[in-house]
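Posted in: Structural Biology > Protein-Ligand Complexes

Title: Requesting predicted complex, iron/sulfur cluster in pocket

I'd be grateful if someone could produce the 3D structure tokens for the following input. Sequence and ligand are given below.
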Amino acid sequence: MANDRVHLKENRFIPLHMPAPRTLFDKVWDDHTIATRPSGDALLWIDRHFVHEGSHHAFRQVAGKGLSVAEPGLTFGVADHYVPTRGRHEPIADPAIAQMVADLSANTSRHGIELFGISDPRQGIVHVVGPEQGLTLPGLTVVCGDSHTSTHGAFGAIGFGIGASEVAHVLMTQTLWQRKPKRLRISIDGKPLPGVGAKDFILAIIAHIGADGARGHAIEYAGSAVRALSMAGRMTMCNMSIEAGARCGMVAPDETTFAYLKDRAFAPKGARWDQALEAWSALSGDAGAEFDREIRLDAAEIAPIVTWGITPEDALPITATLPDPVHAKDPSRAAAIQTALDYMGLTAGMKLSDTPIDRVFIGSCTNARIEDLRAAAGVLAGKTARVPGLVSPGSTAVKVQAEAEGLDRIFIAAGLEWVDAGCSMCVGMNGDLARPGERVASSTNRNFRGRQGPGVRTHLMSPIMVAAAAVSGRLTDVREMLP
Amino acid sequence: MTPVKHVSGPAVALALASVDTDQLIPARFMSRPRSQGYGHFLLHDLRRNGDGQLNADWPLNRIEDAKVLVARRNFGSGSSREAAVYALVDAGFGAVIAPSFGDIFQSNCVKNGLVPVRLEDHEVETLIAHLLAEAGAIIDVDLDQQTVRAAGHVFRFSLDPVWREQLMNGWDDVDVTRSFSAQVEAFRARDRARRPWARPA
Ligand code: SF4
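-- Reply #1 --
Done. Output follows.
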């Protein structure tokens, strides 16, 4: 029937009653679209919202409008950014921090929002806790006033960070206005070399496309090497999507996802679980769904990667030498390289593995899950760290688990400090900072100037690479230490 | 919010790429209430020497009444902290010009009446060269015409139509959304039946 078909510009005929093939992102987006403006902006329903101590600006906006929280049951509070990682049972010494933590309690309790507060066994970094508690599920929209909310996309959710005004908007309406991003698929196929994992994948991608390379895009990570990752690895990749400038990052849910979620505290149970599984199984992209952009990488070609500069795109294989501004493609890139080398106290042409370090940090929403701690402890077992350092598990539950497995004793025996869960030295808001001029090997996500304290130089890498650096006192190829 | 149609005034160049929101306002200042003003914290560490004194060579430290900031690519990347925009607005800025912006930062700008203007790389370089020669030179950003004028140059930019409308009318998102409350209600009811599993157990 000729009038039952539309003519697409690709010269293919598709029957009208057959919807166009959609990507995972399209499906979740469409499922949440309440209304669309002529401009294409969509009003989206928000399924999960997380607030933390930094949300005080947003709560003040709500109070200023005299409005209440539309859906208190869909927002959860977590104390993570400012909480001390030592002496949890004592009152918080710094009055400004004590106030932030108290304000979060007051704001959440005033509006009937459940809080995983400082002494709650469910406390931890918001992007570790959401998945751990089964709050993050496939097919949901998840937002938080924190850019690394992209982490939750590992479950096949659309997760993205928002500013304080948007946090206030979600509190008041449980919705958000968003422009639909373009779709970028990044496929990694093949088998990675030993010692190479999710953190190296994502750093390789950012180095390849740039810190704004995915601007305006929703990334879907695909390919056999991504499929083979645990949920922890997928979260590491999605977490750093924002460092490539993306709106969000996603991985289609599969058996690995479902097995992770089964029986988690807030995950659906019984008949609801069965309904959910059915819905989740339909979420993968349709055959023939189109992406606006495609990038392919071969896992076997990726080496352990470290950053040398002051944006995550300044990343190189550990076997590389530092770039020379003389060879930069244009004057503004040359200036950027020189600025980065100056801040980092490094010299062009130097071997990365000749860089001595002063301190290590294993923690953050990127790499402080139990799998990360096990892997780092594997490298450190029976060895001594040459530099001081801190290990802060991603959540209190991870801490309990790690202690049950004896990982804490390995870190302590190596000479590192084992502390409570929180953002800690990833951002240093709680006072966990390095000293000016110090060079830190860090499992975190941002090597911005001053991120770990004024004048501090941060090198990003995987937790096992941090462990290797701790043992040798310099940036080190962890493969030298693997059995 | 006050409608913004036009931003015109002294401009300063920040000839750096990837000035992230951690630079725009270091984390340690964000516990303060906005009512205390965030202008002092703008680029706090970057504009100071190691001894904590303001670096006199920094254009930002010389031009007190700057209204327009010009920077290189990936401006405002990183953390979602809206405080980065508060710092710019409280310091008197009405527009920022760069070849690309951090996504969340850009949207935070619009929510606070700060105009994010994207120009081509070479156009930004022209403006930077002009401002390095003459710090505080006047730049004029016209939202209606979508033009940037400086030293005889006229550059066109295009801003997302919704953002432009919002800025020019001074609209608040929450008010716009409340005009959709019937659709939101209908969606909520339908969604509860369709995805019962989506609520926390
Ligand atoms: S661990 Fe670091 S990146 Fe993650 S939420 Fe905390 S401060 Fe942000």
